[in-house]
Amino acid sequence: MTPFATNLVLAFVWAILNGGIGLPSLITGFILGYGVIFILQPLYKDSRYCSMLFDGVKLILFFIWELIVSSLSVTWDVLTPVQKSKPALIAVPLSAKTDAEVTVLANLVSLTPGSLSVDITEDRSHLLVHAMFVDDPEAFKMEIKNGMEKRVLEAMR
User: Fold this and answer.
1) Cα dist. 87→135, 144, 151 in Å?
2) How many CB atoms sit inside 10 A of residue 89's CB?
3) Three-state DSSP class for residue 130
4) Strands 88-93, 126-131: parallel, antiparallel or unpaired by DSSP?
5) For residue 152, what are the contacts with CB-CB under 8 A and spacing of at least 6?
6) Please, where are the H alpha helices in the chain?
7) CB 34 within 8 A of CB 123
8) In the chain, what are the domain boundaries?
9) CB atoms inside a 10 Å sphere around CB 115
């Protein structure tokens, strides 16, 4: 049985033992079941189930940080009389290969204020991004590659 299936079974067992299958009881059981699987991780040597959760949390926290920083930058640029924006279209080379990886990356880039995923090349080697603040195109490419794309690939592979 996969670790996820084991976690679901443990969640249902917890809910039944607590007198009813309700959402709070299932969530509590799922969290406790995850803890049990985390402790018994050596039994699932080839599974990334436990590490994927940490990588997913790292991606979410990184995105929230980027969201806050970019929101403040855009807000400051809009509210102050001095315009610091230097918009540009940048072709960012991609390491993401699957449709899911590219889609998640493109959506996260578009959800970040001040940037927008415009297009992707047919061979999926580059993502065309319109950015509001680009002082150095190479630094912007590295920021996407070493920031958002790196964490998306960690969470999805």
Assistant:
1) 9, 16, 25
2) 13
3) strand
4) antiparallel
5) 59, 96, 101, 104, 105, 108
6) 3-17, 23-39, 49-79, 99-111, 137-143, 150-156
7) no
8) 3-43, 52-156
9) 23
Cα distance between residue 75 and residue 62, in whole Å: 20
Crossing angle of helices 23-39/49-79, nearest 10°? 120
Q: Residue 55: what residue type? A: D
CA–CA distance, 33 with 17 (Å, rounded to integer) = 14
CB-based burial label for 106 (10 Å; 0-12, 13-18, 19+): buried
Q: How far is CA 55 from CA 21, 65, 89, 127, 151, in A?
A: 30, 15, 30, 23, 7
Is this model's pTM higher than 0.70 or not? Answer: yes
Find, among 134, 125, 62, the residue nearest to 92 by Cα.
Answer: 125
49-79 vs 99-111: helix axis angle to the nearest 10? Answer: 30
Query: Which tens digit of pLDDT belongs to each residue from 19-77?
Result: 888 899 999 999 999 999 888 888 877 788 888 888 999 999 999 999 999 999 999 99
State the residue for tokens 């590219």.
102
